[in-house]
Amino acid sequence: MNGNRRAFLIGGGAALAAAWFARRSKSADTSAAAPGSAQVVAKEVTIEEFSPSGKSLGLTHVAKVVKSESEWRAQLSPLAFQVARQAGTEYPFSGEYDKNHALGVYRCVCCDTALYDSRTKFDSGTGWPSFYRVISHYNVAQGKDWTLGMLRDAVSCARCDAHLGHVFDDGPKPTGLRYCMNSVSLHFVPYSA
């Protein structure tokens, strides 16, 4: 009976995980309307805009970026699509921004929304670019992630829902947070005067 119970629990857990992934994949492609149905109207979101020098330009209301899976695939590299649109993770120490120490703004690879200021970046030793603060809480969203059999706080772009990484509570002062991001979900723009 113990073997049957264990098989049942493992099978049930696998079924739940499969259902979650299927739901996540379906929700990532909300713009693809069924033939003959009305197109989903994109809602507006509030984000904070930033100048090329990293200065806040204030809050603005913009349309939520919604694209079909084929449009995202055409825009992104295969790895960026897998990470940003399917909540994947790049290998540690493989991303181009882990050791980047230049001054600038890290923006969303999918929609160009400003996410992190380089002045809040630190070397966490994890192999992923890490920041102790987001550039604006308007520009990122957090949600629960139960993958890998543990609860984590997932971080995504508020404007296009791109998966960026996770946030942990083991970072440096002043926040004590570590926003552990995937390089491939970001693009870096150096400050300009």
Which terms summarize this structure?
globular; 2 domains; three-stranded antiparallel sheet; alpha+beta; 11 strands; Metal Binding Protein, Guanine Nucleotide Exchange Factor, Chain A; 193 residues; six-stranded antiparallel sheet; single chain
List the helices and strands and how they pair.
Blueprint: H1 2-27, E1 44-50, E2 56-63, H2 69-75, H3 78-85, E3 104-108, E4 114-117, E5 121-122, E6 130-131, E7 140-145, E8 152-157, E9 163-168, E10 178-181, E11 186-190
Antiparallel strand pairs: 1-2, 3-4, 3-11, 5-6, 6-10, 7-8, 8-9, 9-10
Could you please describe the fold and organization of this structure?
By secondary structure, this protein is an alpha+beta fold. Helices cover about 20% and strands about 30% of the residues. It has 3 helices and 11 strands. The strands form 3 sheets. A 6-stranded antiparallel beta sheet has the order 5-6-10-9-8-7. It has a 3-stranded antiparallel beta sheet with strand order 4-3-11, with no helix packed on it. The protein has a two-stranded antiparallel sheet with strand order 1-2. The N and C termini lie far apart (about 70 Å).
- SS summary, helix count: 3
Helix/strand-derived class? alpha+beta
Can you write the helix and strand succession as a string? HEEHHEEEEEEEEE
How would you sum up the global shape?
A: globular
Q: Within the largest sheet, what's the order of strands?
A: 5-6-10-9-8-7
Name the CATH architecture of the largest domain: Beta Complex
Main beta-sheet strand count, sense and barrel state: 6 strands, antiparallel
The H-level CATH homologous superfamily of the largest domain, spelled out, is Peptide methionine sulfoxide reductase
> Measured on Cα atoms, how large is the radius of gyration?
18 Å
Q: What is the highest CATH level, the class of the largest domain? A: Mainly Beta
* Helical proportion, percent range: 10-25%
Distance between the termini: 70 Å
Average pLDDT for all residues? 83
Low-confidence stretches: 1-39
